[in-house]
Automatic annotation (TrEMBL):
GO terms for molecular function: polygalacturonate 4-alpha-galacturonosyltransferase activity. The keyword Transport does not apply. Its EC number is 2.4.1.-. It is found in: Golgi apparatus membrane. PANTHER family: GALACTURONOSYLTRANSFERASE 4-RELATED, GALACTURONOSYLTRANSFERASE 9-RELATED. This is Hexosyltransferase. The keyword Transferase applies. Pathway: Glycan metabolism; pectin biosynthesis. GO terms for cellular component: Golgi membrane. Keywords: Cell wall biogenesis/degradation, Glycosyltransferase, Golgi apparatus, Membrane, Transferase, Transmembrane, Transmembrane helix. It is a single-pass type II membrane protein. The chain crosses the membrane at residues 24-46.
Length: 562
């Protein structure tokens, strides 16, 4: 029994030892495997690091990768090498910052060239420092140990340069930031200015279209008047000749227009302010398209006070043909037609300065009729020329009593200071203009002119006009319009009138004194903002609308909105 018991205890102990022995063998095996893996990994990393050093070129590392490679393993890292990499990285970072500020300075075109040179020198010093032979051989030679003394000197020089760079950057930062803001502001202003110039061109072109296009109400009025004539031809038979149209003892007016409502307002304003309206004779000339409408208007609404109104079409004056009139001859020129009638919208927006002169009205015969007054009215001695955009506020008979001193044209001068001189209307770079005229001579206004027709004939002014107009076929003497040839034709034959006779600018100048306007005999809506248009200036519009015949049925029908 005892043996059996011992045998049993011995067997039990052997069972336990038999279980533990494989367990410890397994642990030793696993430990050995991990040890081998660790040694293998270490060996691979070491060989890779060693291989990198053998293939390193002589130049200084250009990024933080060198620092990572040299210091990847603490066991193999060289403290001096690590320190060198950190110093170099610091130098490289500051060199980049210095170059950035130098680039800003060049972009902003700053007037601080001394500071810019210092930035360039700092960047160059930082670049050249590692390339010095003493540093290159002792610090950056592959495979060679780092000389601590040389490293210390290298570190000192780098820190000195970095210190200077930091001081300069701190000093310049605020200034550069402000300069960048200023430059951005300038760029914004430039961009906005470009948009403004474009908007002005488009606005000027739109204003030109508004001013020169026929308003719907005016077109409606002309159509209604023609319709009336067609519907009732018996009412509008041609009237016989009246001797008053050639009586030189009466007060004669020349009005050339294709605008029915404007002519009506003008004549009504003259008659209502005339002391003896029955002595006033109006010679109205229009084009073939509007002559019927004009005649119907004045037959339906006769002028008050016994004044006389004669209406003709410009085509009725047979002597006005292309063989005699330079303007008509020039209109037959292909280049002139191209200038006026091809791509007007495109040309206008490209050339805003000359845009208004590209309007064909400046070569229309109605616009140039003023140069043929003696031939149109051969029996008259004096005649008052009025534009259709004027309003008369006083009796004008005093103009016939003004002594013109033997001159042809009585007009109000418009010059003040250096403005409205001949130099602004004529091309004084042309030898003919330079030779014959004074650039400082004072200009005067068309729109209200008293002409002595006898003096005109004596001075042969129409021949002078033909001579100069023919020379200007290529627009080398003046641009266009009737004022420049008028200034030339009547250069030495114009008598200056008192300014109260004729006040100008109501079609473009909002700053005219109301006292000046109320004292004027004639007010002139020269400019784009004509009083019959929606774009008219409100402060002046009522001075024109009060003479509109609102009792005329077609004015109401066509909704003038006056």
């Amino acid at each position: 029994m005892a043996l059996a018991a011992r045998g049993t205890r011995g067997g039990g102990s052997g069972g336990i030892n038999g279980g533990l022995r494989p367990f410890f063998s397994y642990r030793i095996f696993i430990s050995a495997i991990f040890t081998l893996l660790f040694l293998a990994t270490f060996s691979i990393l070491f060989s890779s690091h060693h291989h990198h050093h053998h293939h390193e070129d002589d130049s200084l590392p250009s990024s933080g990768n060198a620092y990572v490679q040299r210091t990847f393993l603490a066991v193999k890292s060289d403290p001096l090498k690590t320190r060198l990499d950190l110093i170099y990285k610091q130098a490289n970072d500051h060199m980049t910052l210095v170059n950035a500020y130098a680039a800003y300075a060049r972009k902003l075109k700053l007037d601080i060239s001394k500071q810019l040179r210092m930035f360039d020198e700092l960047a160059k010093n930082l670049t050249d420092l590692p390339l010095k032979p003493s540093y290159k051989s002792s610090l950056f030679e592959p495979g060679s140990p780092v000389d601590e003394d040389v490293l210390r000197q290298f570190e000192k020089e780098v820190k000195d340069i970095v210190k200077v760079a930091r001081l300069m950057i701190v000093e310049s930062k605020e200034s550069y930031d402000n300069q960048i803001k200023i430059q951005k502001l300038k760029d914004t202003i430039f961009a906005v200015n470009e948009l403004l110039i474009k908007a002005k061109k488009n606005g000027a072109f739109a204003s030109l279209i508004s001013a020169k296009s026929v308003p719907k109400s005016l077109h409606c009025l002309a159509m209604r008047l023609v319709e009336e004539r067609v519907a009732h031809p018996e009412k509008y038979k041609e009237e016989g000749y009246k001797e008053e149209f050639e009586d030189p003892s009466l007060y004669h007016y020349a009005i050339f227009s294709d605008n029915v409502i404007a002519v009506s307002v003008l004549i009504r304003s003259v008659v209502k302010n005339a002391e003896e309206p029955w002595k006033h004779v109006f010679h109205v000339v229009t084009d073939r398209m509007n002559v019927a409408a004009m005649k119907v208007w004045f037959r339906m609404r006769p002028v008050e006070g016994g004044a006389f109104v004669g209406i003709k079409a410009v085509e009725e004056y047979r002597f006005l043909n292309s063989s005699y009139v330079p303007v008509l001859r020039q209109l037959e020129n292909a280049n002139m037609q191209k200038f006026y009638f091809e791509n007007q919208a495109e040309n206008a927006t490209k050339d805003s300065t000359n845009m208004k002169f590209r309007n064909p009205k400046y070569l229309s015969m109605l616009n140039h009729l003023r140069f043929y007054l003696p031939e149109m009215y051969p029996k008259l001695h004096k005649i008052l020329f009025l534009d259709d955009d004027v309003v008369v506020q006083k009796d004008l008979t005093g103009l016939w009593k003004v002594d013109l001193d033997g001159k042809v044209n009585g007009a109000v001068e418009t010059c003040f200071g250096s403005f409205h001189r001949y130099a602004q209307y004529l091309n004084f770079s042309h030898p003919l203009i330079k030779e014959r005229f004074n650039p400082k001579a004072c200009a005067w206004a068309f729109g209200m002119n008293i002409f002595d027709l006898d003096a005109w004939r004596r001075e042969k002014c129409t021949e002078q006009y033909h001579y100069w107009q023919s020379l200007n076929e290529e627009r080398t003497l003046w641009k266009l319009g009737t004022l420049p040839p008028g200034l030339i034709t009547f250069y030495s034959t114009t008598k200056s009138l008192d300014k109260s006779w004729h006040v100008l600018g109501l079609g473009y100048n909002p700053s005219i004194s109301m006292d000046e306007i109320s004292n004027a005999a004639v007010i002139h809506y020269n400019g784009n903002m004509k009083p019959w248009l929606d774009i008219a200036m409100n402060q002046y519009k009522n001075l024109w609308t009060k003479y509109v015949d609102n009792d005329m049925e077609f004015v109401q029908t066509c909704n003038f909105g006056l």
